[in-house]
Specification:
single chain, about 290 residues, 13 helices, 10 strands, globular, binds magnesium ion, PAS domain S-box-containing protein/diguanylate cyclase (GGDEF) domain-containing protein
């Protein structure tokens, strides 16, 4: 399943990048060069606790900034990076950069508890992933519990799933594990009992359908309930408006992320976001009814 999807994306990717880079280099070589030339960048999207509206952390999202100034979204190159294996060095760069930026924010006095980083199956399976993470944490003297690895259901349970031992080793390091795009995989829920998961991230598709009522509302409410029963944190992805936010808060969801709160932005914008958070907190303390 993943392979087929990957191939389709790969074709799209090739055309698009051949166009972008105006060359006939293979996707592999283009990505390798991009990594060497330091053309990848991270944007960060705030994670917001509810109902207070406090920014408690960020999710790191990679982009490719081509020499001609185009910003290529991850959906256009991550599948190819996974197929070619370049996801391993690229993923390591993402982890190191996100940890370095988080350290800088914390050192600057920001009150943040989470830096979330997406990790793909090939990365998790790659020998040395745990050691790499351990050395990155050491390099920046970062408390492991601030790093939250986002792993999809497919990576946890699908074909070529990550070894359970790796997940336990990551947990033993003190890292946090979140299930990304929860509800979109085809897996059974049994893994939630067996794996050391801390958080479920409700997939954006359920959140965007909340206004149409019915099924999406039932599914979102059920995931929040499941999280509560299993003592897992639950975050709603892709919150874009007040209706969605109100529904989620009313149903007990304690964390959200989405354009309603903030787009992914470059690192330079983050200290200002932290400042906004402080004002929001102060406002919330004076007026308990104030919107986040
Ligand atoms: P994801 O991890 O589920 O990340 C959330 C995606 O939803 C991001 O897209 C984000 O920009 C977008 N998003 C956030 N809020 C909203 C909203 O309110 N409405 C809508 N319509 N979209 C919203 P992005 O940055 O294009 O990333 C897409 C996917 O690429 C990510 O999905 C993740 O699976 C993957 N990805 C991104 N960075 C990395 C990375 O460093 N490593 C790996 N392995 N995968 C990555
Ligand atoms: Mg994610
Ligand atoms: Mg997600
Ligand atoms: Mg998603």
């Amino acid at each position: 399943h993943a392979k087929r999807a990957g191939k389709g994306t790969y074709r799209f990717f090739s055309t698009r990048l051949t166009e972008a880079a105006n060359t006939r280099l293979s996707a592999d070589l283009q990505l390798r060069q991009a990594l060497e030339r330091e053309e990848f960048i991270l944007h960060y999207q705030p994670l917001v606790s509810m109902p207070g509206g406090r920014v408690t952390g960020f999710e790191a999202l990679v982009r490719w900034k081509t020499p001609d100034g185009k910003v290529v979204p991850p959906g256009d190159f991550i599948p190819a990076a996974e197929e070619t294996g370049l996801i391993v060095p690229l993923g390591e760069w993402v982890l190191r950069t996100a940890c370095r930026d988080m350290k800088e924010l914390l050192a600057g006095g920001a009150d943040l508890k989470t830096m979330a980083v997406n990790v793909s199956a090939q990365q998790l399976r790659h020998a040395g992933f745990v050691d790499t993470l351990q050395s990155i944490l050491k390099e920046f003297d970062l408390n492991p519990s601030v790093v939250e690895l986002e792993i999809t259901e497919g990576t946890l349970m699908g074909q070529g799933k990550a070894p359970v031992a790796i997940l336990h080793a990551l947990k033993a390091l003190g890292l946090r594990l979140a299930v990304d795009d929860f509800g979109t995989g085809y897996s059974s829920l049994a893994y939630l009992q067996k794996l050391p998961i801390d958080k479920l991230k409700i997939d954006r598709s359920f959140v965007s359908d909340l206004e149409s009522g019915g099924a999406a509302q039932a599914i979102a409410a059920a995931i929040i309930g499941l999280g509560r029963s299993l003592r897992l944190e639950v975050l709603a992805e892709g919150v874009e408006n007040r209706f969605q936010l109100d529904f989620l808060v009313k149903n007990g969801c304690r964390e959200a992320q989405g354009y309603y709160f903030g787009l992914p932005v470059p690192k330079d914008a983050l200290p200002a976001l932290a400042a906004i958070k402080w004002r929001r907190e102060a406002t919330a303390m004076r007026r308990a009814d104030s919107p986040p």
